[in-house]
Design goal:
Blueprint lengths: L4 H41 L2 H6 L8 H33 L11 H27 L9
Helix pairs in contact: 1-3, 3-4
Amino acid sequence: MIPNFREHAANERTFLAWVRTGIAIIAFGFVIEKFNLFIMALAASASPEAAKGIRTDRLSGPIGRYEGIIFMMVGVLLLGLGSWRFIRERRLIDDPAPRKGTGVRAELAVSIILMLLVAAYCLSILTGVSASVTTPLHALP
């Protein structure tokens, strides 16, 4: 039997949760990026009259241009942070010396970053939806 098997198994489950979350955030960023490209290609291929009614300025703005890439980078950051945490905890589980708390937790910092990123994205969607389309979709040719 492996010494401290329960702790090692819990550490591995936590690591896999970090990996799942990182991959999901990378996939979400990829979907955002591809959807933005799809909308811009659709606007470019529309007739000139219809293209005037579709405003893509929000997609080419500071948030719209980089939002998918930012989500992908945060996902990669989560993968790296999860790996670092897994290795550190594995060493600490086998260390016989008692230890203190780690102070500021990386999990809290990443959670706050993700909350702010999602809030900024939601805000850009809410403020951009009413301003991005000036013509109703059923009126487009």
